[in-house]
Amino acid sequence: MKLPDKVVVVFRSHLRADADLQALEAAGVRMYELASTMPGFISYKDFTAADGESVAIVEFSDASSLLAWRNHPEHQRMQQRGRDEFMAEYHIQVCRPDREYSFNIGS
Questions:
Q1: Which of 21, 55, 74, 90 sits CB 3.0–4.6 Å from 13 for a disulfide?
Q2: CA–CA distances in Å: residue 59 to residues 3, 10, 31, 75, 103
Q3: How far is CA 2 from CA 5, 7, 9, 63, 66, in A?
Q4: Residue ranges of E strands in the chain
Q5: Distance (Å, rounded) from C-alpha 26 to C-alpha 20?
Q6: Residue 26: exposed, middle, or buried by beta-carbon count in 10 A (0-12, 13-18, 19+)?
Q7: pTM strictly above 0.85
Q8: Mean pLDDT of successive 10-residue segments in the chain (107 residues)?
C-alpha cells in the first residue's frame, strides 16, 4: 500500500492580550483566500480551546506545494506581522500521515 504524499501542518498558538482581533480576522480571511488558490492546497480548519489556545490544521498534497505556500511573499509578510502584532507564542509541526482512514455515512 502506497502512503499518501499529503503533508499536514498543525499550527498551535496563543494570541497576545493586546492583539487586534478585527485585524487578525481580516488577515486570516486574506490568507485563506490566497492559500486556497495555491496548487496542492487541500484544506484548512481552525479551532480554539477553552484555555485560549488556537489550533489550525492545514493540508497540502505534497511537500513542494507546502514549501511554495511557506515562501509566498504575501504569506511571508503575514508571518512577520503575526510575530510583530498578534502572536504571544506558536508551535508548528509538519507531519506526514502514516495511515489514513475515513468513514462517511452518506457513501
A1: 90
A2: 15, 9, 14, 16, 18
A3: 9, 15, 21, 16, 20
A4: 7-15, 41-48, 54-60, 87-95
A5: 10
A6: exposed
A7: yes
A8: 80 97 96 96 97 96 96 97 97 93 87
